[in-house]
Amino acid sequence: MPKMVAGEATQTVGCTRSMEQMVDLIRQYRESTDPVAREAFGCQFFDLVRPRLYAYICCRCPKQHAEDVCQQTLLGIFTNLHQFHGMADAQLCSWCYRVARNKIADHYRKANTKRGGLVLVAPEELWKAIENSAIQDPPTKEQWADLEDTLALLKGAKPECYEYLVEVFVFNESRATLAQKLGLTYDQMRMRVQRCVESARELMAKVKRRKR
Amino acid sequence: MRGIGAGTDGQSQEKETVMEHDYAEEEEKLRRFAERVHRGWAKQYPGTEQERTAVRQVIREQWQREDQVRRTMAEARRQLEKRTRTRPKDIDKRGVDRGHDNDQGHSH
Fold first, then answer.
1. What is the CA radius of gyration of chain B?
2. A42 vs B56: CB contact, 8 Å cut-off?
3. Is the ipTM of this complex over 0.85?
4. Distance CA A15, CA A88 (A)
5. Fewer C-beta neighbours within 10 Å, C or N terminus of chain B?
6. Residue A127 above 90 pLDDT?
7. Are the C-beta atoms of A203 and A157 separated by less than 8 Å?
8. For residues A193 and B1, what is the distance between their CA atoms, to the nearest angstrom?
9. How far is CA B102 from CA A201, B88, B91, B98, B107, in A?
10. How many CB atoms are located within 10 Å of the residue A136 CB?
11. pLDDT grade, residue B8 (50/70/90)?
12. Most A CBs within 10 Å, among B27, B32, B50, to test the A interface
């Protein structure tokens, strides 16, 4: 369980084992002196990053173009991967998403169409992904209960809160990047996310009381 | 999150730390939820063969570019070392020559 520390370190609170592997993989990729090893590390990174990139792109671009944009994004990432020197998981995610946003902008520019709005992944879609994950690795009864509680709180969250929680925890976007996008300071963004988690806690408590 | 009528900076900071610590359980549940979502997406959106092939190609090309730069720099270093090794002999010769030249320069 990652240690929760106040301040900047809370950016890593959304990190998972797979994210820690990603940053480690990038370091090994950059430092490898053998082309076969470099390709192997690259493919492992591809397997980790591609799914969430695709999901991220689907929120920002029509599905029929998502595959194409995703491929362009991956090529952009791998072409410049040797230039990424960050050490934090959230930095890596933000960097990859930045490439994705640029490719999405390029797509709309080439298509000469107006950019669509952000369509966040619905809670039902998140649950579908969780059910898929349970096929080979079924959660325990207690874990299912926790997952259901978390889904309930996400469903009950205000739209603004839902957006923050999904961006920070599901997509592991850094608070600093979110702050920049919204024209806020880092501290303001951090407080907003904390308020969302606080109201999520109240929602969780309500759900538990209803179940009794 | 500072409460209403918070006291000194130290007190409000302590309250903030306590409240941040209280979020740990909720944030951990959100983190585990996200981890499951990522595992599910890995099955739903594994990537196309076309993408993998294109990415491998980029990795190889990038490697070749870096390898070329490494070789060029290694060659440049070798050339520099070679020039540095030959320099001391040249100075000795010059020293000997300088003495001979000095004699020649003076008019008696």
1. 36
2. yes
3. no
4. 9
5. C
6. yes
7. yes
8. 11
9. 93, 21, 16, 6, 10
10. 8
11. very low
12. B27
Within 13 Å and on the Cβ side, how many CA atoms surround B16? Answer: 17
Question: What is the mean pLDDT of the segment spanning A47-69?
Answer: 91
A81, two tokens: 């991967």
Q: Report whether A194 contacts A6 (CB < 8 A).
A: no
pLDDT score of B3 more than 50: no
**A 86-125 residues inside an 8 A Cβ radius of B:** none
What are A160-177's pLDDT values in tens digits? 889 889 998 899 888 888
Partner residue facing B38 (CB), from A46, A51, A71 = A51
Q: Are A39 and B56 in contact (CB under 8 A)?
A: yes
pLDDT score recorded for residue B15: 43
Averaged pLDDT, A85-98: 86
CA B70 to CA A151: how far, in whole Å? 51
The CA distance from B4 to B11, in Å, is 12
Q: Could you tell me which of A51, A77, A64 has the C-alpha nearest to residue A111? A: A64
- Write b or e for each residue in B68-91: b if 16 or more Cβ atoms lie within 10 A of its Cβ, otherwise e: eeeeeeeeeeeeeeeeeeeeeeee
Alpha carbon of A162: minimum distance to chain B alpha carbons (Å): 12
For A111, half-sphere exposure in the C-beta direction (CA atoms, 13 angstrom radius) is 15
Write out chain B residues lying below 8 Å of A147, CB-based.
32-33, 36
| Residue A88: DSSP 8-state | S
- List pLDDT tens digits, range A29-50: 988 889 999 999 999 999 999 9
Residue pair A70/A53 in contact (Cβ under 8 Å)? The answer is yes
The answer for residues whose C-beta is within 8 angstroms of residue A1's C-beta and 6 or more apart is: B28
Q: Closest Cα partner for A79 from A56, A59, A60, A102? A: A102
